[in-house]
Amino acid sequence: MTFLTSVLAFIVAIGVLVTVHEYGHYLAARLMGVKVLRFSVGFGRPLFKRQFGRDRTEFVIAALPLGGYVKMLDEREGDVAPAERERAFNQKSLRARTFVVSAGPAANFLLAIVVYAVMFMVGVGGVKPVLGEIVPDTPAAEAGLERGQQILRVGERAVLDWEQANLRLLDHAVRGERVTLLLRDADGGEIERVVDLRDRQALLGEGQFLEKLGLRPYRPLLEPRIGSVESGSPAAAAGLAPGDQVRAVNGDAVDDWNRWVEIVRARPEEELRVRVERDGGLVELRMTPESVQDGETTFGRIGAGVDTDQAAARELAVLVRQGPIAAAVSGVERTWDVSVLTLGILWRMVTGDASVKNISGPVTIAEFAGVSAVIGISAFLGFLGLVSVSLGIINLLPIPMLDGGHLLYYAAEAVKGSPVSERTQMIGQQVGILAIAGLMTLALYNDLTRLFG
User: Fold this and answer.
1) Contact of 21 with 71, CB cutoff 8 Å
2) Between 303 and which of 134, 200, 230, 449 could a Cys-Cys bridge form, CB atoms 3.0 to 4.6 Å apart?
3) Is the fold of 124-219+310-320 the same as that of 226-303?
């Protein structure tokens, strides 16, 4: 994966999300009879600018693609001709203003439903939730979970792959509950085990949730045969190619994929002498794994994937593909699950039960955008749905400057019978700017900490 891939995927993702969000505001404003002066995707110097429609609305694509806005006719922001006064936003009813402001976040939730539905129609590839080694002295070990067992159900909900299992378990951890797992034992029988997820501070702190829970996915013994190589990665720079079979590293024999992964992860920024078998002959390569930071853990990565066309890998593979109706239902369910989980984690951050180091900024989002784009359309759609839900929820937070801040003012107006004073709104704006600046600074700090350790 190259830097350019991440940047392009990030711009596409943010462009789609911002356009849909602002179009929600725009469409609602038009429905309520509000005159829209400008629809801008991005901030700063316009790269594209055209006027369309009866109102000659100015549509703009600007240089900084980290947001957007819809500018409406409003007496608080400039002179309004008497003939157009009834089309000013501030002259509309409380119900109409609330509808216009709510439409942006609502559009993001609708987008999430659509992209998740398309994802399920395209087909979601995954891995069966079969347990590998259980980490000692963890909730999983205390519950008596064992290697080789497959998770069939978490609570009352069935799971098909590790992604579903992770989401379901994380949801119960956010709630601080004990949950019953239905498992298929190695001999084919079904058993139940109760896992204690009440220690939220330990489970929701910095780092991988499943690792702290004590669960590691089962890894079958696979031949160390290369299936894919990311463009621009250390593996590509060294000349590693799909079909190569790793035979030795630094003179030591390697006979399975797990051992190869362990060697790479244990040696970030350390040159490796790798002997591979290619077309019946042996080739010597030299490669240096890049250093990757995950919380307090640093490990090596070369950007190469295993050849999954092996019997052991195929036995664990899962492909979920649904028809349009079932996919639409699954899209609604996934959007609801992610929304509830996101809200729960945000609340646990406020109460101190979850680490604020889990907040990510543009650097991490760009990295995930690039990774998902490289993996395939299904992974990118899943990423787009997740970020769309997050954008919708963040915009509904009761922080002045955000949609949720305006809705808070409207709630106060509904209670007191008159609009909130301009002075109060000005003070709120200043508080909102500080809050948003603080969140952005924290997110960027977390990004840079992950990036540079």
Assistant:
1) no
2) 230
3) yes
Catalytic residues: 22
The predicted structure's pLDDT at residue 429: 78
CATH homologous superfamily for the domain 226-303: PDZ domain (2.30.42.10)
CA distance 36 to 55: 7
| 70 burial type by CB count under 10 A (0-12 exposed, 13-18 middle, 19+ buried) | buried
Structure-block tokens of residue 220: 């079958």
How many residues are listed for the chain in this entry? 453
Note the CATH number of domain 124-219+310-320: 2.30.42.10
Ranges of each domain in the chain:
94-123+323-453, 124-219+310-320, 226-303
The answer to whether the CB of 298 falls within 8 A of the CB of 285 is: no
Q: Given a cut of 70, is residue 294 above it in pLDDT?
A: no
Confidence class of residue 339 from pLDDT cuts 50, 70 and 90?
Answer: very high
CA-CA distance, 98 to 294, in Å (whole number)?
Answer: 41
Residue 76, amino acid: R
Joined tokens for residue 273:
């002498």
Query: What's the pLDDT at 362?
Result: 58
- Least confident range from 10-19, 246-255, 327-336, 381-390: namely 10-19
Pairing of strands 124-127, 226-229: unpaired
Q: Is the pLDDT of residue 1 over 60?
A: no
Distance, in Å, from the CA atom of 156 to the CA atom of 171, rounded to the nearest integer, reads 13
Identify any residues that bridge with 297 across adjacent strands, giving them in sequence order: 294
For 361, residues 6+ apart whose C-beta sits below 8 A from its C-beta are 440, 443, 444, 446, 447
